Each structure stands twice: as C-alpha cells, then as structure tokens.
Amino acid sequence: MGSQVQWAQAVSSAKCIAESEQSKGKPWQVLLAAVVLGSLGLMGSNSSFAAEADTVTADAATATASAAIGPVKCVSNVPDDYKGKVWQIGTDNAFAPFAYVDANGELKGIDVELFAAIAKNQNIKYRMCSDDFSGLLTELNDGKYDGAMAGISFTVKRAQYFDFSKHYYNSAVAVVMPQDMTKVLTSVEAVQDKTVAVKDGTLGMDLAEGLQERQKIEIKTYTNTADSMQAVESGEADCLLEDYPVAVYELMSGKYPSLVIAVPRLPNIGKSESYHFLVPKNNKDAQQLLQSFNQGLDQMITNGTYKQVIEKYLPEVPASLLSSDKPNIVIKPEVVKEGSEL
C-alpha cells in the first residue's frame, strides 16, 4: 500500500507540472521508477462473443507477422463500384488486439469492429485500410484519410492538427520482463546500464527516452510488439514498455513463457492515456463524421455492444501473466519537453 500512496502522490505532482507547462502528462511508474511528462510522435460477457475469445486470442501468435508480409488490407461496407460518398479511414496494421492483419490476411481488431458497428448504426459508408502507424497521422493530415482509428492518444501537438472523438478506451503503460528480473529491477539505480525495448512511435518509447535523459540506459526500438517481446524473452533487452492491453494480448499467445507483467495498468491522469478517433481540423465534412462517431459510440455503450467487442478480444487476464512481486518503489517526477513531430 505504501508504494501505491507514493505513486498517487507522484501522479498528482506530475499532473500539476503538466498543467503548468500546458502539456500532456505521461505517467511512468515501473521498475524504472519515473513519471515522465511528454507527448507522442505521429504516431458479464455475451456468450456468442465469449465463444470467439479463444480464437481471437490465438490470432496474437501470427497477427504481427502477417501484417509485415502482406499488402495493405481494407474492409468496407460498400461495393467497390459504389458512387456515393465513402469515408476513407486509416488504421494500424500491427497493433493487436486493436487493429491487425490476421493469419488469413484479414483486417481484424477492436478498432475495426467498433468502427463497423458505429458505421452501421449511423449509416456511415466507409472503407478502412491498414497502414504503418509511423506515417498514419501524417497521411491523415495530408488528406489521404478522412479519419484515423488506431489506438491514438491525445497530445497537445496532435490537437493542433486534429480533432479528437470521445475516448473509446482507457489505456496505460505496462512493464513486461522475465519473472526473475522483477527481483533485480526494483529501483531507478538498478536500471543503470540496462536495455529497454519499445515499439517505435509509442508512449513506451517516449517514456524510455525521458528516462534516458536522467541516467544511462540503452533503448532498442522495434517495429512491432512481437519483436520487442521476443527481444526480452531472448535476453536481448531487460524489459519492455508497452500499452497494457497490447501487452496482455500478446502474452496470451503463450509464446513468451518467461515473461510477466511486472507493472500493469498505471494510474490514469488524463486524456493522454485514452484512445480516440481523429479527424483533420477545420474540415466541416470531417466534423460531421466525428459527431456521428461520438453518437454511435454512445449507442454502443448503452446497448452493450461495446462491452461485447472489448471482452471478445480482451477476456480476463490470467493470474500467471502478472508478477507476484510487489516492489516498494519510490517515484520521482520527471519532465520531458514535447517533441516537434506529429
């Protein structure tokens, strides 16, 4: 309980710093014992859904590899020769369980199913296509897409170019490491000279870079979660910083028997840890799309469809994936200036 109180105090302190700096707060309590404030770069279940959960979870073993080797994949609710307005929506190709290309080459995930359901109840004609997240928001800003939905968090920089929907998922950073490492990496000092794995363009990457400003660590960047997990499993890296739901989904594949979540969902201090649908600013048509998305999301939450989709992809987390060690970590707030890139 002591460490939880320290974390709460640190989050409160960090939030004050964020507000005073007019920037976004990014909490980071882990083995690394830090709270980093910064921005990201551009970057009771229904039985029918529960029955699909095992199949969905199994996709985690192949989703990332399929996305890497295949062409762009799209889903649409209109035929190719449809003559009316079709909204072009961009999403990630390797962000399971939110958006990914599965072993059969099909675009799947929470974001894909949520948008499809919203489009149905709001009569939105759309085409959603997979893309590399590293360039997704640049392409949204350039007009290739009318909207983007790929587990995208709020940042002050992004808010200059895009309008955000209501949040559709509350996320947080998780820390993944081998079980035996949880007894070693218990303080800021213990992280000295260690290697931290991150996925390019993620909150975890920002947090690692923030820590690197205060002490000597090596950061290894990967293009997908599977590769970063494997790096920790093989000893190439000492730990991984990844969004909690993504870490859970990948670990449930069973490919990483030595890994556990040492620190699960960290306390949420604001919009920076929530996922949103984005549209370009100063675009009247896009504002219509955004309004329809918000209305459709509200309907899904009310009628229970939202919960069904989430639980289909993210069932209860097995206790074996969570570390049994509860290190007493003293948290210290840190500040990282917001980057210049989208």
Please tell me about this protein's structure.
The chain is built from eleven helices and 17 strands. The chain is an alpha/beta fold. The chain has two domains: 2-39 and 172-269, D-Maltodextrin-Binding Protein, domain 2; 47-169 and 270-313, 3-Layer(aba) Sandwich (D-Maltodextrin-Binding Protein, domain 2), CATH 3.40.190. The strands form four sheets. Strands 2, 3, 7, 8, 9, 10 and 16 form a seven-stranded mixed sheet that branches. Strands 13-12-14-11-15 form a five-stranded mixed sheet, sandwiched between helices. Strand 5 and strand 6 (107-108) form a beta hairpin. The longest helix is centred in the C-terminal third of the chain and has 20 residues, at 284-303. The radius of gyration is 20 Å and the shape is globular.
Our Rg estimate from Cα atoms comes to: 20 Å
Quote the CATH topology of the largest domain. D-Maltodextrin-Binding Protein, domain 2
In whole angstroms, how far apart are the ends? 38 Å
- The chain-level mean pLDDT equals 75
Overall, the morphology is globular
How many helices? The count is: 11
How helical, in percent, are the residues? Answer: 25-40%
Report the CATH architecture of the largest domain: 3-Layer(aba) Sandwich
Strand content: 15-25%
Number of strands: 17
CATH superfamily of the largest domain: Periplasmic binding protein-like II
Low-confidence stretches: 1-69, 327-340
CATH C-level name of the largest domain: Alpha Beta
Number of structurally distinct domains:
2
Structural class: alpha/beta
Order of helices and strands: HEHHEEEEEHEHEHEEEEHEHEHEEHHE
* Major beta sheet summary: 7 strands, mixed
